[in-house]
Amino acid sequence: MNRNGTRLMREIMLQPHSLESTLGCQKGRVRSFARYILRNGIGEMDAVGSGSSLNAALIGKSALRGISLRPCEPSSYQANAKIALFVSQSGESGDVLEAQERARGRERLTVALTNDWKSALAVRSDMVIPTFAENEACVPATGTMLSALLTFFHLGAELSGRKGDWEALQRIPARLGLFLRSREIGDGIGRIAHGMEGVALAAFLGEGRHRYAASEIALKVSETAEIIAMHEGTAMFRHGRLAPFLAQTPPLSELKKAVVILSCGNGNAAMVYSALDRGNSTVYEVFHGAQTANGSALALGAQDPLEEAVFAIAFGQLLAHELALAKGMPQPGTGQALPKIVK
To answer: What average pLDDT does the segment 255-272 reach?
Structure first.
């Protein structure tokens, strides 16, 4: 796998530094926010965002204890909870700003989670929690997405007050650095990308919080490699969503297709394998832990649930990059067809 030479890969490789900076620089604000929640007995909080920002909230909610996080798209936001957290990497997303306007002046705390503390979203909020990701020139959000996700993990650690939660959080930047530099991981992603060369339609599957990681991976693959990418839970996929992957008539039958399963070793992968016509679609299994019974599966080597989410998303970024290179894109993620909206 080529780890140098493209702007997107340089941005991917900078993520450990972005996460370390985010954890260190935002600690006081996250702690103050956690204390506000605990002091006022807040039991629920809305989180509003789109795309990668929404995925960060959907994955991050599993780390919050004692408070129910309700992630939603800006268009469906109803100002109900006493805290409204608005997530936007640029802080300038129009739909998020419109949703924020609906929440203001209704005796609730508005909080901005953004990579630009001078943005419109930050200026209009009661509280700002900044992330400290490196500036990104490419379309796909890399460090900004993972920094937003780590902020939810950070808030969970502050709310729990448990030393072990904070220690697990602090290990993530260095562990991510090892993951990104791992030859074994690089070779495994290279093999999957080689097998997916020419794929026009791909599905990324996962259960529970891994379903939201699958959503983020599908988004990155579609943005970066110009592949039609869908995401789904493995159970729902088996109930009809696999139809395009079993197509017997043109044009779908003529397309090369692939299915990537984020597996926890619970048997879901085997059920998808058995449901698909292997001659029509290729199935790849990505296992979150360090070991897997399936010798052909790629093991990401995560040691805890926080690492599982971070490593899965980084896997998706690397895979999208390699798929784009295989299609002859010299600078993945910098095409003019898709406008840059993340600062």
So the answer is: 81
